[in-house]
Sequence to fold (209 residues):
Amino acid sequence: MRLHDCQMAPNPRRARIFLAEKGLDVEKVEHSILDGETNGEAYLKINPWGTVPALELDDGSLIREAPAIFRYIEASHPSPNLLGDNPREAAEIEAWERFSEIQGISAIGEYFRNQTEALTGRGLPGPSELDLIPALVERGQKRAAWFYEEVNEQLGKTEYLGSNRYSIADITAQCAIDFASAVSLGIPDHCTNVARWHKVVSARPTAAA
Fold:
């Protein structure tokens, strides 16, 4: 297998951590988003969507989007379980994982992307030409603040985010928060539950993936 990757981006990191938790060491091919490589002709021949991560299988087929990669790997390498081992747990994990992607990673990406000159004409991931919208910077910041509040409240009730054990919900939330910290939207001082949990998940060896 080969993972099409971008070290600075949160979504590929989700896949790297997931693979590391499964004990899988796969080849990684770097494609710079800021330098426009994911929109370049060479990469679009691999993935016409122009997004990372994308997992290239040994037969040459491609699995696009982090959640699809999670499902494929979980089905083929079920231990340790990261998506839930019963219907109720799986539903709760997926709810928090999706919340962390949409209201975390996407909101912070909205904040970052719409004020980054290197991404001019690339208002959203992919090859379509879309203008940056400065007004979305403030909206992304507000969405990120709500994300922190909701996660902080939940972590006041549970040790981990989607279950009583580490799961993909924690992976995606951690990638969202580390991305936020990199673009000056770090954990608010009053979110002490988030800070406690973040220290725990950051101590896992796979967090360095």
Remarks:
- The chain has a mean pLDDT of 97.
